Protein 1
Amino acid sequence: MSIIIFIVMLAVLVLVHELGHFLVAKWSGIRVDEFGIGFPPRLFRLWKRGETEYTVNALPFGGFVKIFGENPDEDSISGVDSARSMINKPRYIQALVLVAGVTFNFIFAWLLISLGFMIGLPASLGTTAGEVRDANLVITNVVSGSPAEKAGMKAGDNIISIYTSASRLVEMSPENVADFITSNPAEITFETKRKEDNKKANVTPVDGVVGGKKAIGISMDMVGIVSLPIHKAFFEGGKTTLELTKNTVIGLVGFISNAFLGKANLGDVTGPVGIVGIVGDATSLGFVYLLSFSAFISINLAVINLLPFPAIDGGRLLFVAIESIKRSRINPKVTNTLNAIGFILLILLMLAVTISDVIKLFV
């Protein structure tokens, strides 16, 4: 079931991205030859309106837009219909078409998060403009390889009670739990709840998990539900989208910097196999969690697509910027070759990440 949900989620996010390219290209008078749902081979044509074919294809991983002149050739540069070619449009029009996809991903994330706030979105106490109700102590992160992970504790679990053979924690808060753990080096019993399932986990704190104190390897927060009216939901949704975008950029820049320094760990990157597992966790927690995760993935797709790397939007934008500075067109053979090489490298990277995901399943 998680695989099906992941495919649907990915298809929607990619279609939103391609819809941005499609609409701005049409608005700019650029010829669009095909708008495809899924990837080839083609199954059938839905209809044809003007010069654009609307098709359904066999691989259900999103969609694509075939824009005339996006990958320049002799026909698009100087052919009969070359005036409607993307390569012959002003460079600011080319840039608008290229940036439209990521813009739609950001807007879509904003809409999803805003909808979440309208329905009732999990939020930390004091972090939003609305009143947080039904707050519980929730595990927000579990350190890999820690005693908590080995005991089966997971992010999203509500902590109901904590006790040892000699004492019980009365007032629940992240600070009180941390103090209780450090002051009780023996085995501690955690009663947790995930949806309707209550579980017990017996955990013994150890040194070296977090800082110099004994710990079990969890982060916690008081999390409740916040529901906002439409106008506040859109405002808070916008703020949250900007915050997630900033954190995504910081994380990506840090990873790339470490890669250049030889310190990057491919195991820190989650690919399709790993995301399927996260989708399953989000789905088990509820629909609104799946909305939030979809928004997060949409933001990640947008940020990654803006990287100045050939074959993706950021690389194509870089070529447009270079042409604007030098006031002449880069040889199309050069750009097409670089984009082809970039695409191959991206496929190889995706294969490497997928293999890393599979290995982590068995480690």
Protein 2
Amino acid sequence: MALARDLRLEDKVGQLFWIGFQGTIATPDLRSLLDRVRPGGLILFSRNIEATSQVRSLTDTLFDAVRIPPFIALDQEGGRVNRLKPILGATQAPLDLARRDGALEAVRLHASATATALKSLGFNVNFAPVLDLSGTDTANGIGDRAFGEDPLAVCRLAGVALEAYQRAGILGVGKHFPGLGSARGDTHVTLPVIRKSRERLWKEDLLPYRRLKRRLPMVMAGHACYPAFQGRKRSPATLSPRVVEGLLRETIGYRGLILTDDLEMGAVDQDEGSETQALLGLAAGNDGLMFCSSVDKIVAAHDAVLAAVRLGALDETRIDRSVRRILRLKKRHLVERRRAPFAPGAVARSRATLAVLGGGRSTGFDPTARV
């Protein structure tokens, strides 16, 4: 794989973007979008998923459609957030697994079966585990998507899940930094303000990131506002240099990839435009910019970053720092490891394992769904 300095600017900028799309096949319009943006990551939602062979065919097409091997991701947490329900059936929520006798083994089996299926279906990234501290209350947009409210228990269970993903060849993503457990609103629709003290956030919400920082290939920044770190400015932590570059990168010492959550969510001021959001995301220190739905927003954001570099408003060395991290991870996990063969039998065995663990409450409201 080429070094960052050897890539054309268009390829470098493309590597920063993680994009969603419509449909269950690679249409000419989607291929045109991929040719223009050259994304570093692609994200599938329930709208893209119908059946086992269809998903593998789609991920194969996506993988081959861009010159630099892409991250291909989805949110397969279990419970309500279950993109693969047509394929894997209903699955247990993380909180339900955490409350069982033998929780560590239950989480390991759940993560291992999930990752095995993902690998066979052509994915290489799962946007999990959730590291937020939350009980059953869903007012924060998290609820039973978390492993519970005890930060030490979350560290243990998330660590087991990450190990299972890694063994199966899937990259895990810890989310949503610095933590949405204390939010009183869902970032998909509004900007919550979390007024916990710096000391409590450090001891509680940030503990999983501190403990697991060397085991997390990627971290996703969340869209709540934290006055303890951001001061009086009311904006998402995702777009705050104090939180992303200052807290996560410098204070905690995290060295992996940092991704924004979807920049089309309600917590982000959509009136500012995707161009502004993309540039703010890079200024904050993020390596990946996520736009999950709108083609117009994806193109506008991509073109704005490209133009900013060409005009000298954004230093190309800033882009290079992120691209180096991206290419290192891709070389290790996407290039040096062969793409797994399609194995319908492995997917069926994963479904059977997950069924033994119990179906769970997968019919509840999924706040992450995109229609």
